[in-house]
Each structure stands twice: as C-alpha cells, then as structure tokens.
Prior knowledge:
The complex is a heterodimer.
Chain A: E1 6-17, E2 20-31, E3 35-39, H1 46-53, E4 61-66, H2 75-81, E5 82-85, H3 97-107, H4 112-125, H5 141-153, E6 159-163, H6 171-188, E7 191-196, H7 199-205, E8 208-213, E9 216-221, H8 223-230, H9 235-243, H10 254-265
Parallel strand pairs in A: 3-7, 3-8, 5-6, 6-7
Antiparallel strand pairs in A: 1-2, 1-4, 8-9
Helix pairs in contact in A: 3-4, 4-5, 8-9
Chain B: H1 2-17, H2 19-39, H3 41-46, H4 52-74, H5 76-81, H6 84-89, H7 95-123, H8 130-157, H9 165-178, H10 191-199, H11 201-214, H12 221-244
Amino acid sequence: MPEDKNIISVKNLTKKFKDFTAVDNISFEVKTGEVFAFLGPNGAGKTTTIKMLTTMLDPTSGEIQVNGFNPVTQQDNVRHSFGIVFQDHTLDDELTAYENLEFHGVLYKVPADTREKRIKELLDIVELWDKRNDLVKTYSGGMKRRLEIARGLLHHPKIFFLDEPTLGLDPQTRNHIWNYILSLNKKENITIFFTTHYIEEAQKVADRVAVIDHGKIVKMGTSKELMVVTHTKTLEGAFLELTGHEIHEEAANSLDNLRMHRFRRS
Amino acid sequence: MSTVYILWLRQVKRYLRSRSRIIGSLGQPLLFLLAFGFGFSSIFQKAGQGNYIQFLAPGIIAMTVLFTSIFSGIEIIWDRQFGFLKEILVAPVSRVEIMLGRTVGGATVAVFQGLIIMLISLLTGFRPHGLDGLVGGMLIMILTALLFTALGTAIASRMEDMSGFQLIMNFLIMPLFFLSGALFPLQGLPSFLSIIIRINPLTYAVDGMRAAFINMSQFGFATDLIVLSVLTTILMFVGGYLFSKIKI
Lengths: 266, 248
C-alpha cells in the first residue's frame, strides 16, 4: 500500500481504438473516501476510462494505480479492491436475488457465515429482503439496480465504481439510491467513483467533478470551483462554458454519433 | 474449487428451472428414435444386421449429448448479451476456473439429457447389456459431453452474438451427427465418407456407447475411450485459451 491518500491515480492515460482516440491523455487523482464524478455526454470516454480502471480494458498508454495496484499487471489485487455497478444490467435473471448475491460472494471468497450475514444486511438496506427468493426476471428496473448495488458492496470493496447508476430511473428512485450510497460512503469510508450525464446529480452528490468531453478532461474541481472559474451561476452554465455545448444527447453532432457508434462496438 | 462449484450449480439450477427447455430439446432425438427406429427396422433386419433399435439407440443418445453440450457451451453468448459475463469476468478468479465450472456444468446438463433419452429408448425396446455396460456407456457419455461443451465454449468465445448460430447448426452440428455412424453401420461406405467419419469425434462416442451397451464395435472400447480422452483434453485447453481472450 502506498503512503499517499490517493486511492486512484491516473497519469497520461490514453485509449485508442485503431485511429479513434476514446480517451485522450487524461490525468487525475481520487482521494480515499472521496465522492468523485465524471461528468460528460455519451461517448465522452467515461465508460472506457472505467473499463481501464477495472481491468476490463488495457490502456494504449499511461499509468494507472488503483488501491496501489496496477490493473494491467496485478489484475486480481485490483479486482479485490473494487465493487462495480455497470451501466447495463448484469444480473442472472433466472436466479433469485439471494442466489445472485450468493454467487457473487463465492466468487469473491467471502466466507460462508459472513456471506449469509452480509446478504441479509444488504438486502435489508436496499429493501429487497422480502423478495429475496423471487427470480430476478420478475424485478422492476429500479429493484434490479438496487440489487446490483447490494451485490457490488457484498465483498466490502474499498472503491465503488458506478457507471451511470441512475440511468433510466425515476427521480424518486434516484434519490433513494444515492441516499444509500452516500451513507455507506460516510459510514465505511468507501471511495465512490461514478459517471453521469445528469448535471444536477454531479452537483448534488459529488465532492469533486471532472468535466470530460471528447476523451479529454476539460476541468476538474468542486462544483463551486467550476462555477467560479467559468464565472457562471450554475454547474450547467459552467459545463456550457467549458465545453462549448450542452450535455443533452440532442446536442450531439454527427461526430459524436460516430464516436458513440465506435464506442459501442469496442 | 468453490468457483467451479458455484458456476456448476448455476448451470444446473438454470437447467432444472426451464422445463420447456428440457422437454423442447428432447423433441428432436425422440423424433429420430421413433421415425428411424421403427421406419428402418424391417429393412435393417432383412439386410441381416439385426435389431435396428438396438443399433440406433446409442447413436441417438450420443446425438442428444452432442446437441445439448454444444448449446450449453454456446450459452456464453447469452451471458454476454444479458451482461452477466461482465460480473464473472471482473471477479478476482482465474479464467481457467470459470471455463472449468462452465464446462462441467454444461456437461452435467448434457449427460442428464442423454440419460433421459436412454430411459425413453428402453420403452421402445432398447436393451443394454449388463451393469458394466451401463458404467462404460456413462463414461463415454461424460467424455462426449465435456468434449462438445468445451467445443461450444471455444466457438462462443469467438462469437459476438447469435447471428452465426445457423452456420454452426448447419455446418457443424448436423454434419457431426449425420456423418458419425449414429444412423448407419460403417462397413461398405465409399472411401471419402469413410475418411470423414473417421475424423469425426462423435463417431468414437457412438462406437464407444455401442461397445459398452450392446457389445458391438468398429474400433473397440479402449480405442474410443483413448480418442475421446485425448480430444477432450485438447479441446478443454483450446476452449480455456479462447475463453481467456474474451474482452468485454
């Protein structure tokens, strides 16, 4: 373990897919216990960055340290360090909620008695204990998300990655989910790294925000700092000032669409 | 080991929960067993080859194992499409263990299906010889199931989605079945066909089961067992290697 308090540090990270640069020479640090947001439109390079931090994708160049380990050469150490909620659903629909968590616990070598206790705890927190023996295919989108959050925390990770965790959820469920996550952040000092394209979410939840666009980090700081630097009154205004465009999907031009297309294929 | 076990358990649970899949996948072998078994029975008898049901049943059992195990292997594509593969691949476990768990799970399901068809064929008049025959037949069934699940895994590791599925069905599974001696004896075949049949792994599965169940064999039980064991080992390595290369 390194002495410094940065649990994630990234230097000059680049990912190229053939001639297309998805992530373009970015550097940043995340402190232990921090809630850190990647804010940017679809195709900005958010998911690609998360994939590199979580051993799913090798960088073209640059250095990454996650919990003191290198995701390329020390995959298992890195994998033990984090929990993750992916952008798309990754539960087994044909298993029950309990079985999904049990599966996860065994893969992460959580001892049987601890496993049982934690599953009960977590399912209580996300309010799914009563439905633990229902097949996941009978769950609503919000319930599945909550279950995935519970699953990601089962092995008590140091870092929790959430890739667009509230995408497609109604505002109420969104609030609900963030309340869980933030209380865990406070109680267990878990570092939270999340991506979003909801500006108000980044503003409300994150200690620090990195604005990412076209594979580059445009600016990084607290919401307040970003507003001060750009002489704007809202984070939305700051975003517009920094990137020259709005974050909404309809603002995406044809180049962005091409980026997204390639991005999906990769 | 616990990783292998939980992956195995998942496959078995999913199988036991999908009644329609169990029944659906028995349809084709049953059709073959009944249509061919009774249809060709008298011609076979007249040609001096004996009881066709006795001859055919091991072939149909092998077919069932073949179909089920390749599909079990290919199920990885579903896991990829429904996202579950990501959950498995970011876990701190070795790719080899994952591949092993999946293969053993898929093979277990395939052997179950093979046994169901064997029980049904008893009703149509199939009579295997003795207990040691059953043990030998089971051994061949298990090897066959492992072999083709590993093959399915290897193929699925290189496939993005189900679009290549018809290709596999028509250019791999069907030829493997029809060109294996499951339906007809291997004597007196044109030499090109004879060569193809001899390089088809399923041939040795069918022959091995016939050797065990009804004491009738072209190559001998020991040869069948060795060929299948060697091929299974090779394919486990190939499947494991290709699976470890999967990127998500």
